[in-house]
Amino acid sequence: MARYEVFVTYKQGIFDPPGATAERALRNLGYEGVESVKIGKYIRIETAGGIETVREMCEKLLANPVIEDYRIEQVGEA
Amino acid sequence: MRFGVVVFPGSNCEQDVVHAIEHLGFAAEYLWHGDMDLGDVDAVVLPGGFSYGDYIRCGAVARFSPIMAEVSRFAERGGPVMGICNGFQILAEAHLLPGAMLRNTGLKFICHAQPLRVEESVCHWLDLPAGIVLDVPVNHNEGNYYCDAETLARLHAGGQVVLRYCEPDGSLAVGGSAPNGALDDIAGICNERGNVFGLMPHPERVVDPVTGGTDGAAFFTTIVRRLAEVAG
């Protein structure tokens, strides 16, 4: 059994309204150095399947390749 | 002529759609998402709502409902399918229509009457002259249509852009008329063949003057007329 972490984010160039709002809010709080904020999803999966299976899960359901990229990290044995 | 209206867990506009169809004098029945059979319906409507709580992405789980395999086969055979709001999101997730819906740019759930401009299109569900303005309510949080530039060019070239958000006089504002940030003010698109149609606004809510208008009736009456013509 392995544990994977999946990060799903918007593809580059796609407007991320929650990220833009957080970015503005941080600047309003005085963090003037803030260049960019992007908000995505974090998914943790424990499975007996390998990383290829997790990739398949991302392609099929967890991410939409039209608008999103995903990154998978194996973080240990569950 | 019989419409089938699919009920997913979390759909909340199926009764409005069935009521609208019956109000217009046609027959409709509910189809359950867990079934694998469309029965003898001639057209399928995927209603609005929050199927599966909109978890993961709007429509992402519903597209794997058992009935969706049958809806895809029906669409491939040329059967007419209309997805309204969440139904449009499900059709996009199922790759029956190109593109995807992002969160509204203003981060607000929008709910108001909305002018829509009819475009020149191959859509089987609408044959009104291009330029006519319809008043149909919108009611959504993720209606910000997006597709890549290549897909957008193909949509325009193939007459697949069916409806665009517009100003009350039918013009498009500089910087966009879409209340949700949708690309090119796109409110509704169809597939290349024209039989699969998705739109964010809710035509079923405006088929009776008692609810504020009748501009939504055309979608239902057009497909009925078309099917009758095909049947000869």
What can you tell me about this protein's structure?
The complex is a heterodimer of chains A (78) and B (232). Chain A is α+β, with helices and mostly antiparallel strands and 78 residues long. Chain A is built from two helices and three strands. Chain A has a three-stranded antiparallel sheet, with helices on one face. The longest helix of chain A has 12 residues, at 17-28. Chain A starts with a strand and ends with a strand. The relative contact order of chain A is 0.37. With 232 residues, chain B is of the alpha/beta class. Chain B has a single domain (2-231), classed as Class I glutamine amidotransferase (GATase) domain (Rossmann fold), CATH 3.40.50.880. In chain B, strands 2-1-3-4-11-10-9-6-7 form a nine-stranded mixed sheet, with helices on both faces. A two-stranded antiparallel ribbon of chain B has the order 5-8. The longest helix of chain B has 15 residues, at 217-231. The radius of gyration of chain B is 16 Å and the shape is globular. The A-B interface holds A 10, 14-15, 17-18, 21, 61-62, 64, 66-67 and B 56-57, 60-61, 64, 92-93, 98-100, 102-107, 146-148, 181.
